[in-house]
């Protein structure tokens, strides 16, 4: 079966074909789950309330539809979809799928893809404080429903207590599939399992519990991980409701395509307001939107007014590695916070370098021990300490320097006392704290090189590990972590991705618990990293905005987040990347989320679902491909197609040659009724950017004004790319639009 690597994401591949059906013998051993796309049924052959299930069953081979029992037919039919696609998932052989080629209404089919899964301090770091500011103004997300598509949930965890929670909104139509409904309350108002329909949606690994509590966990005092990162754990929207849609197996790290589509289908039907998806494609597995199930399904959700927060992927720092890049999604990258869990390395020459480790307990060798770097004569400049090398070098009772990819178990088996794990040059100075079988410190590439230089400078190098614990106040935060996927988008490079970044490094949140009661909370929280962690931060923030502004569209919420994002760190300098250089727009997007500013953005760039049709036609998709995404009849020949950069997006990504380019944007006033904004442009060398008009005025709320931006290349500066910024300024309001320019 085809498979795709992702951080808990999802995809689908469509191939255009017209098909039919005949009587074909099946080899039961060759059955695979296929995603089958069909046209919507016509009323002429069905009752007014179209029986979709009967329509879908009519496509099954005659040997199934005619000669099989109801149980046989149901065992072959995996899922029938009502919202996300026109089609179904069924267990079929390749021959049976081929036999569908003469059936009227059949469009295409493919074997489903198998996908992989991709805070005590972060609320304060993001400027959220209890009983004041944006948290108070948004009523902590009260009344908003966040649907989380993940690996399940641990309903007994204290983060999901419903103390002080109101009952679900009257619109809620979801189900609770825990035994007797005992796992649901006014916090977890729905929970379903689409990964295994016969089991409750319990989280076997912890990923879904972690993401759910990050988005909307309630206040839990004394949360920590083995004593570190101690504080009050709480999600971004503590009074929002949660609905869990289990579509993934955390242990196996897979999310079947059919399960993900079914989960999204149900979430739309149930009435969620926000969808949080910490899942995605793997590297080099990009799909056109018309062949990407998540893109198709989330467009249907946006049509229903549902906001989509989704992870950018963990495949950075490679360019073009961003996934989930459709413009109707908020694509979230990962950044650091100002908290670290420090274990320092003290060398025999008294030089001390800070590293990180989650292992902060007893057994850490604080005395100076011999320090070795196991490199054989034929080894490269860095080593992952393979077993054969460790056997040839005496490491017993010593501190062993290895590359981050080394297996600590190998060093333990060889008798090593501790490890220093250094980044490679690609990862640079991004450090993600971890836990291993050996006491250790994870250090940056720069520090690792310094330690190697020390080893080579003396005949008897030594080192000790010094535990410093939780440290808050790193002024270089937020910074972009190496693993966060980078743009440009492969599918639509004219849309700047990722959109925004949020906390995704060393995030503490709820974890699965044992069945027996646990009173010590240090065992029920864990610290993990990934865009899977940054995504639910934005999901919760979107819920706060939805609560504060119930009339805002998904695009309006997205615009508010993007145009108010921070582009500087805590020390007032540009946000940095893994090499301590200013992060480019394909790493940071519009910037680092600032929830309080997003609550009052001044202006927004709104987009209605039908506005995406000219954009999709402009991608040169066929009528059938566009129809598959938007769910209605479309004839691109009758649509005035637009360039990608013409979509009313809050940011710009353009390919600029010698020809002048002009694009239009329309802003809607959601700030003071009487206001006048002045444009400000920061242009790169060799590019002239002009705004017409340069000033825009409003006399009422929700009034719209259109302006144009013209880009002219004035000279060749020998660079392949550049970046610029457009701002509209009125008093305290600074409405920012980043501009990524690729020269052609």
UniProtKB/TrEMBL annotation:
One of its GO terms (molecular function) is serine-type endopeptidase activity. Keywords: Glycoprotein, Hydrolase, Protease, Serine protease, Signal. The keyword Phosphoprotein does not apply. Residues 369-451 form the PA domain. It is found in: Secreted. The active site is at 150 (charge relay system), 207 (charge relay system), 532 (charge relay system). Gene3D superfamilies: 2.60.40.2310, 3.50.30.30, Peptidase S8 propeptide/proteinase inhibitor I9, Peptidase S8/S53 domain. GO terms for biological process: proteolysis. Residues 1-19 form the signal peptide. Pfam families: fn3_6, Inhibitor_I9, PA, Peptidase_S8. GO terms for cellular component: extracellular region. The keyword Hydrolase applies. Residues 646-741 form the Subtilisin-like protease fibronectin type-III domain. Belongs to the peptidase S8 family. This is Uncharacterized protein. The lineage of its organism: Eukaryota, Viridiplantae, Streptophyta, Embryophyta, Tracheophyta.
């Amino acid at each position: 079966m085809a498979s795709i690597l992702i951080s808990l994401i999802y995809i689908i591949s469509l191939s255009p074909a017209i098909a039919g059906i005949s009587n074909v013998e099946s080899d039961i051993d060759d059955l695979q789950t296929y995603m089958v796309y069909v046209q919507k049924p016509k009323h002429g052959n069905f009752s007014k309330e179209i029986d979709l299930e009967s329509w879908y069953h009519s496509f099954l081979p005659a040997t199934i539809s005619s000669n099989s029992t109801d149980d046989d037919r149901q065992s072959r039919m995996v899922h029938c979809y009502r919202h996300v696609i026109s089609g179904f998932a069924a267990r079929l052989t390749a021959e049976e799928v081929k036999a569908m080629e003469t059936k009227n209404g059949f469009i295409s089919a493919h074997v489903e893809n198998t996908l992989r899964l991709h805070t005590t301090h972060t609320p304060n770091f993001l400027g959220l404080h209890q009983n004041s500011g944006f948290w108070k103004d948004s009523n902590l997300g009260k009344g908003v429903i966040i649907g989380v598509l993940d690996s399940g949930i641990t309903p007994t965890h204290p983060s999901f207590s419903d103390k002080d929670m109101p009952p679900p909104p009257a619109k809620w139509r979801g189900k609770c599939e825990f035994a007797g409904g005992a796992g649901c309350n006014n916090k977890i108002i729905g929970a379903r399992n689409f990964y295994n329909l016969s089991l409750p949606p319990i989280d076997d690994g912890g990923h879904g519990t972690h993401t759910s509590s990050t988005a909307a966990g309630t206040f839990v005092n004394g949360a920590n991980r083995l004593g570190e990162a101690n504080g009050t754990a709480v999600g971004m929207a503590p009074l929002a409701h949660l609905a869990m849609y289990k579509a993934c197996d955390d242990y196996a790290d897979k999310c079947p395509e059919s399960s993900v589509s079914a989960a999204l289908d149900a979430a739309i039907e149930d009435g969620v307001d926000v969808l949080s998806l910490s899942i995605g494609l793997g590297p080099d597995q990009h799909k056109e939107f018309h062949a990407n199930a998540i893109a198709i399904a989330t467009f249907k959700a946006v049509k229903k007014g549902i906001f989509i927060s989704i992870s950018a992927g963990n495949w950075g720092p490679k360019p073009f590695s961003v996934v989930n890049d459709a413009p109707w999604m908020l694509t979230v990258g990962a950044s650091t916070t100002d908290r670290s869990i420090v274990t320092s390395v003290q060398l025999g020459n008294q030089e001390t370098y800070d590293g990180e480790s989650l292992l902060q307990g007893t057994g850490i060798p604080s005395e100076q021990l011999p320090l070795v770097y196991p490199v054989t004569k034929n080894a490269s400049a860095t080593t992952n300490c393979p077993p054969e090398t460790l056997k040839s070098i005496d490491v017993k009772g010593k501190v062993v320097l290895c590359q981050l990819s080394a297996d600590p178990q190998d060093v333990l088996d060889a008798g090593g006392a501790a490890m220093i794990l250094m980044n490679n040059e690609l990862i640079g100075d991004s450090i993600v704290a971890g836990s291993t079988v050996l006491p250790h410190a994870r250090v940056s590439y720069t520090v690792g090189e310094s330690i190697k230089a020390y080893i080579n400078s003396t005949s008897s190098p030594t080192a000790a590990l010094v535990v410093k614990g939780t440290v808050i106040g790193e002024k270089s935060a937020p910074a972009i972590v190496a693993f966060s996927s980078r743009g440009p988008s492969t599918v639509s490079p004219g849309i700047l991705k990722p959109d925004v970044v949020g906390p995704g490094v060393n995030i503490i949140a709820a974890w699965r618990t044992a069945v027996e009661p646990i009173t010590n909370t240090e065992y029920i929280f864990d610290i993990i990293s990934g865009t899977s962690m940054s995504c639910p931060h934005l999901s919760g923030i979107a819920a706060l905005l939805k609560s504060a502004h119930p009339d805002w569209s998904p695009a309006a919420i997205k615009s508010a987040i993007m145009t108010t994002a921070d582009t500087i760190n805590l020390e007032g300098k540009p946000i940095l990347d893994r090499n301590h250089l200013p992060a480019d727009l394909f790493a940071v997007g519009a910037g680092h989320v600032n929830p309080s500013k997003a609550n009052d953005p001044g202006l927004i760039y709104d987009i209605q679902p039908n506005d995406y049709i000219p954009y999709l036609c402009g991608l040169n998709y066929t009528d059938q491909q566009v129809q598959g995404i938007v769910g209605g009849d479309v004839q691109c020949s009758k649509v005035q197609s637009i360039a990608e950069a013409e979509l009313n997006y809050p940011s710009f990504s353009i390919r600029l040659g010698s020809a002048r380019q002009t694009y239009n944007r329309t802003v809607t006033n959601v700030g003071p009724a009487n206001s006048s904004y002045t444009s400000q442009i920061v242009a790169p060398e060799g590019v002239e950017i002009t705004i017409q008009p340069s000033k825009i005025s409003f006399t009422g709320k929700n009034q719209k004004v259109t302006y144009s931006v013209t880009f002219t290349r004035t000279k060749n500066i020998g660079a392949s790319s550049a970046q610029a910024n457009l701002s509209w300024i009125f008093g305290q309001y600074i409405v920012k639009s980043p501009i990524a320019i690729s020269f052609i």
